[in-house]
Protein: Cellulose synthase-like protein G3
Amino acid sequence: MAASEGAGQKPATVLNTAEVDPLVHLNRAHAVVYSCALLALLYHRALSILDSPTLPSSLLLLALTFADLVLAFMWALAQAFRWRPVRRREFPERLAGAAGRREEDWPALDVFICTADPYKEPPVSVVNTALSAMAFDYPAQKVSVYVSDDAGSQLTLFAFMEAARFAGHWLPFCRDQGIADRCPEAYFGSPAATGGHDDEIKIMYQRMKGRIEGVLEKGSIDAEYVVSEEEVEIFKKWETGFSRQEHPSIIQVLLESSKDVDISGHPLPNLIYVSREKSKTSPHHFKAGALNVLIRVSGVMTNAPMVLTSDCDMYSNDPEAPKRALCYLLDPSMSSKLAYVQFPQRFRGINKHDIYGGELKHLYQIHPQGMDGFQGPYYLGSANFFSRTCFYYSSPPSPASPDLTSSNGCSTESHNNSIRSDMVLKKAHEVASCSYEKGTKWGSTLGIRYGSLSEDHHTGYHLHCKGWVSVFCDPPRPAFLGDVPITLNDVLSQNKRWSIGLLQVAFSKCSPLTLGVREGSLPMAMCYARYAYWASWCIPMSIYAVLPQIALAYQVPLFPKVSNRWFYLYAYLFLTAYAQDCVEFIRAQGTIRMWWNDQRMWMIRGVTSNLFGVIQFFLEKVGISGFGFNVTSKVIDDKQTQRYEGGSFDFGAESSFFVSLGTIATVNLVSLVVGIARSWTQGAIQDMAIQVLISGFVVVNCWPIYEASVLRGDEGRVPAKVIRSSVLFAGALFSVAYFVFSV
Ligand SMILES: O=c1ccn([C@@H]2O[C@H](COP(=O)(O)OP(=O)(O)O[C@H]3O[C@H](CO)[C@@H](O)[C@H](O)[C@H]3O)[C@@H](O)[C@H]2O)c(=O)[nH]1
Ligand SMILES: [Mn+2]
Structure:
């Protein structure tokens, strides 16, 4: 079923192809059968509720039915991802050959790298990300790297001054040696780095790293490190009344392509440090605000048609990535509507069986492929090449002639002034000021959209609604690699932020279920809705994590007996859903163990980050609590890393997430033991079979919690306080249940 996008062109000039997954027919057939099974389930539930002997048992059945409805809703939405998944291939080697695609004609590239906190995001690692992008296999004079520093930290600026010097050595080194790992830290840590010429540059890198880390540790910059008069002047900006929340904008050109050359005389890319103005009285919209400032500042300075957005930890692992993106951006059959080319987010340092499901295969790989069969994948916030046009037009322009001289400041007049010239810098400072956006459409119909902590999802959704398309580009060698959180608490905190951000999309005035269906296509609306309502997993998860178990302990049957025909319906629904998920996971280069861990994290998220996200979201709605963007820590703690690499769960924090998990682990274990003992003595094991299986399944999944509560002595064990609270909550649940069932 190969459907070539470039149909009609000569094969050797086709830049990309797309192929629909050969298994779609199976998926569709399964969807039909499964829907019938779901209807049968609801019918059986209705019967059971009507037949139910007592009030508590009919209430329990109602709750389970509610959980099943949510599961069915999520299942139905997910069918959109399975309807027409597409796999693409691109041919960057053909770029140079074809007429009209000479290297000189390739578009310029602006790279945006955001950082927000030097103590959670070590400047050395931000520098590594920037260097990997500066070293793209792309004409250097066409590349500009912009670093947005939301911490407004002179330590980060210092790190980049160092990086600018090191780049003069690193870029020619990569070019001459044909190195693929262009992130220095990754290269020097890999077996590819071997003696000879490497030693010299390695020493240089380590000295730079030492200086950056030393300065960070000290919290200030030694005079001996500030080499020029110019640099002294720059750092003076930090002297008076400068704080993270309140400071003027600072824009510093560290390298200018037309003037600065590397040690072998080649031009270097532009490198620009940007710390936008901050004031306590203006909302800054977190990363979305930072990106919009970069869009405008770069619009004034270099205005490249192609824009790469990258998180500070996502370094380039394939210097060809921009060329791969070009294979789509230059394709005339899609280019006028193409808003972006999304690469998957991939991660380094994931442990052997990926205990925390850090790869998030569904989010980062399986589902984007599913959406690619329609209008294209959502925006993942990083590893994404945009066509600049999409930031300035709410819908794709026809014809694509940019008219960007509007009052919104997205001036695109190309100027021949140096980016260090006073005129350019003055304009750049202006568009980076807090007041600039007042009365403009930035954040609503222009640039990255505001109003959600998941600005990426929100923005992608708006672009698709307005008719833009996107493409998922997933080459065999990961194009970008980032850091994953390595403690369970960090994983869940990040996830809670996403849950809240996605709820903000779901409950905005343009929710996927209303606007999405009206303005976009039904399948796209379903895909977006599936994520917008992501946090609603908390409903079935929380219900199934305690109710059948407590009912088991008190011997209240809620499901058909093993000998009943309806038993097979339940077995079918559970087993095929799991089997299909497992097959999808393995086809996406997963293993069974990784899949097992992934499904466990799905359940864990349901009763922790999703649940608490929902609670916090509604508390905010009624004005009780607020929320911000809690930046994920990328700092390496040796002990935590050791635990993570050893594959053991890290519960070493007094986190309310863990109280929730501990409570569920206790309830399930107690119910399983008490339930089996009671059913056995009363000869009712047949009636309680499904409930025994559910509790048993949860208990097996909870093994790391029992282990970390009782058997482990390291710092990753469950804190005593968390255990006490969990036991107390579990006790309370059983007491309430005792009251309910005995009255
Ligand atoms: O006020 C802020 C907060 C964050 N960031 C940057 O945003 C990026 C992502 O932050 P991180 O803490 O790493 O969040 P993650 O949850 O790992 O990021 C995912 O989720 C975010 C939305 O919640 C997206 O923006 C990201 O692209 C996506 O990778 C980092 O480079 C930060 O420096 C800012 O620039 N300003
Ligand atoms: Mn991150």
Remarks:
- The longest helix spans residues 55-83.
- Residues 1-8, 401-412 have pLDDT under 50 and may be disordered.
